[in-house]
Amino acid sequence: MRKIYLILILALFLLTMFTLSLKADEVNVTGDWELTVDNPRGEMTSDVKFLQEGEELVVTMKGPQGNEITGQGKVKGNEIEWSVTRRARRGEMKVNYKGKVEGDTMTGEVQMGRFGSSEWRAIRKEE
Asked: What's the CATH number where 83 sits?
């Protein structure tokens, strides 16, 4: 009987530790971030606001002319991706961001249609 109790206690302990480790791996990017994209014309920095509910992501970015651009995305583990559609003189262009979240920083690559790809990084703004 004593062995059964020890096994149950050990199993409960392991289950608790597993659950806590899952919670520690959860990422929440909700808030204001400063995004910098490296491109052939130099660095471009803009403000980004993320609203995360579970894995779903709503993104609001400032465009080059100061206009707001809204997009959708996902966060899975520490991986993030989102897309926005930018409007320019030559029409619309879908821009896809993919990257990794590490605490209050993110890094990744952005695909900009016929303009190719660039590296990006973001830092969470202090409240």
From this structure: 2.40.128.120
pTM: 0.76
Q: What are phi and psi of 89, to 5 degrees?
A: -55, -30
Could you tell me the end-to-end alpha-carbon distance of the chain, in angstroms, rounded to an integer?
55
Q: Is residue 49 part of a domain?
A: yes
Q: Distance (Å, rounded) from C-alpha 80 to C-alpha 78?
A: 7
Rounded to whole angstroms, the Cα distance separating 52 from 79 reads: 13
22 found inside a domain: no
Q: What would the pLDDT profile of 12-43 be if each residue is shown by its tens digit?
A: 666 666 554 444 458 999 999 999 999 878 89
Q: Is 49 exposed, middle or buried (0-12, 13-18, 19+ CB in 10 A)?
A: middle
What torsion, rounded to 10 degrees, do the Cα atoms 77, 82, 60, 124 define?
40
Beta bridge partners of 75: 80
Q: What is the pLDDT of residues 76-108, one digit of tens each?
A: 999 999 999 987 777 888 999 999 999 999 999
